[in-house]
Amino acid sequence: MEGRWVRVVVVSVLLGTACTSGDSTPGSATATNAARTSSGITESTPTASTSPTGQPTSQPPPPTTSTEPPGATEPLVLAVHLSRGALDISELLARRLVGGGQVSWSELDGGRGRVDVRRGASALTRVQTRPGVVAVVPGSEITPLVRAVLVDGADPLREPERYPLQTPAVEEVPAVVELTVSGDIMLGRGVAPDPGAADPAPSLRPLQRRLARADITVGNLESTLSNAGVPRQGDDSFAADPAVVARLADAGFDVLSLANNHTGDYGDAALRQTLRELRDSPIESVGAGEDARRAWRPVLVERSGVRFGFVAFNAIGETPIAGPGQPGAASVRMQPRTGPLNQGDLRRLRRTVDALTDRVDVVIVLPHWGDQYTNQPVPAQRRVGRAILRSGADLVVGGHPHWVQGVQVHDDRLVVHSLGNFIFDMDFSRQTQEGVLLDLVFWGDELRAATFAPYVIGPDFAPRPVRGERAEAILGLLAAASDPPFSGL
Questions:
Q1: In CATH, which superfamily holds the domain spanning 176-488?
Q2: pLDDT given for residue 14 in this prediction
Q3: Around Cβ 300, how many Cβ atoms within 10 Å?
Q4: In the predicted model, is pLDDT for residue 418 greater than 50?
Q5: 54: phi > 0 → left, psi -120 to 50 → alpha, else beta; which?
Q6: How far apart are the first and last CA of the chain?
Q7: Which of 119, 213, 316, 435 sits between 20 and 30 A of 22, alpha carbons compared?
Q8: Peptide bond into 156 cis (omega under 30)
Q9: Nearest to 426, CA basis, from 396, 451, 401
Q10: 74-168: which CATH number, 3.40.718.10, 3.20.20.140, 3.40.190.10, 3.40.50.300?
């Protein structure tokens, strides 16, 4: 804090000199510093001051007007359309943009045309619809509908203290919490290694460190952890070795949804054992339980003082509906598999979400829904997604289709219909071997960024990141079924 105080005082002294020296010619040191300050930037490094005789001095004069520390600051963010992809520019180029200098897109990402720099209340709205615009806005105004530009490798949303462009703020940046959400995880059947293997889940290795970096990592465990029962779905009955729980914890998973159509594949006893295995681990499970009350019970996770609440439900059937004394999944009967939409189930879901908003800062709902093998959400998904958001949820992230599906937008809040498979042995089509990780950045209770990281599942059933044309194809499948601006990914 002391270093930041010194830097702000230096800028104040320079501005006083500029106002009295009369030197405001373009390109002069005083004109440049004045332009930076008028643009809202707090200078990040000291610069030489000018003496009353007009000669530069090697040290700025000591402050004499105040001994109070400066006010709060926050990143001054350059925001671009989601179609621009990840951008990382130099501080010099960033300052040219903020200062009103003429910049072409070729200097930013190799594109054509001149950058249209915008400020003010309408700047972010323009960015969402016009890929040629760059908005210059405080970080506290950023939403997940735009993409923040990195400056010299510093992300203004993930690393606000390291980001070089700062602007005065009403209060300090709140706690930054990062979440990663994965798609469907199935560690049995063809994915499981030979009995006695040293690693019961080798398919987690390639992305294990990446997953563990997040403050909270969430997934959907699409199997039981026991085969102590009669398989209910033939060859599509999934059970994994209970030893995978420790490996999932090593990979950083904090919350696993059990609200899916395979949690009950080996009957009630196997489901109860699955619940016990997770209860005895560091991982929280949500969406299934020994009875309806426990299946509908939300999971609460706190990081850096920010409280996150998770609710999960299954709309596909096959796993029993949890009831009085009946183990199973929290369920909402709806199209296309268990519909028509059951209003009583929907009311219970909405009441659960509404009650949770009083206990936590952020509510995230994890549905298992939709049609398989398509990127298009069915109308019922959109209807129920809107109802969940109206009940107070901040985000909805679904699974089950085994393909990536589109993103729905309501009042800057998102319904991500499907992230695709994360680990699965569905090697019969390209789309079932693709997916995206959803990376989220929260400032306190506000979602600032939502980005998608494509991967491909290899012959060993392990997901690995991809770039270039393959990544563009995966994001294109998601974009084709998305609302703007995600339709531009």
A1: Metallo-dependent phosphatases (3.60.21.10)
A2: 30
A3: 15
A4: yes
A5: left
A6: 39
A7: 119
A8: no
A9: 401
A10: 3.40.190.10
